[in-house]
Amino acid sequence: MNDDFGAMPLWMLSPLAVVGAGLLLSQVIGVLMQARGWPRLYGAVIAGLILGVSGLGMVDAALLTQFQELFNAASALVLFEVGRKMDLAWLWRSGRQGGVLVLGCVLRGMGAWALLVAFGLGWGEAAFIAAILIAVNPVIFTSMVSDSNASGVATYAAANTVGISNLIALLALSGSLAWMRSHNINAELGFSGELLRQASKLALGAGIAVFCYGLYTLATRISKAQAGLRPGILLAALMMDLGLCSVTASSALLSLLLMGLLLRNVETRENVFQAQVKTAQDIGYALLFMMSAALVQVQQLFEWVPLLAATLVFAARIGLTRLALLPSGAWGGDKKHAIALSLCSLVGFGSLVVDNSLTGASYMSDSAASIMAALLALNVLVGPGLTWWGLKLAGETHEGDKHG
User: Where in the cell is it found (predicted)?
Assistant: First the structure.
């Protein structure tokens, strides 16, 4: 064994160096692709596929667990940003527009459930996966918006939908998870008991968000911190929020979303958080998506039944989102197509690393796991491109306006 280690390059013995090398590779490839007019996030896709389980096998689940806290911190920034993009006043005033965005989330879940049942999955198992498929991937959407410097009515509506979809998915997932756990052979509680347990985790996560936001507000007022100094205080509050959720096994997903929601809808002072931490967020996007790509099993795309199911579900999510937008006259046809495409991406249960209140949910059958793996592989390969295309179709990208 010593001889084997002696023949191995020293940097390969350090998990941190391997992750750093992957991040460096993703940044270099991403910049080269962006210079040619392609989404920069594909640099993370290529790096992840090269170094991950479908490539050299240098980055796998065992290695990534050693950096759980690092990924949790990156996830915290992403989820906070999702919450910060939700404009409750606009959603309330918009009436029908807000309603169709919520309807799209519901239809995505119902459509995915129906298709999964048609492919032979049990009702409870299909509902569990369908709850996950309600959500739009915040890493893909926010990264594509950042890269293309997109802004406008369609981008604004889609950004609000990302937050709405994740909140609805979290609530649906809690209910379906309670059902799955209560019907497991080793179940400790019945459905009502499990549902109460999940509800208490959500409530505790919400309470922690209010507490940490209160600390942030109190600290900035006591110190009379100027706008340029408040992001540091806010980052400290976010880390406290994440840590408290971790030790109490409460819902960090809900808590971090609420932190962003509170800053956007309660904070009345000038907020410069976005400008101050944009570089850290961009690195976080690449890190998280490289992790997702590293765990993708490309061979799942060569099994025709899971691939067919995944393709139909993926396409149905886009089609149902577009269908939900029909009753609204606020956007033209191209804008509606653009919104539907930009919301195509999905999240996987394994990517919810930030929320240990959702652990112990490995109840999927082999067929369900194969379909989910094919969905995630499809999402990594085409999700960023379709989201980028949707933003372009909306005519709201302004890459030429970037400076620096």
Answer: Cell membrane
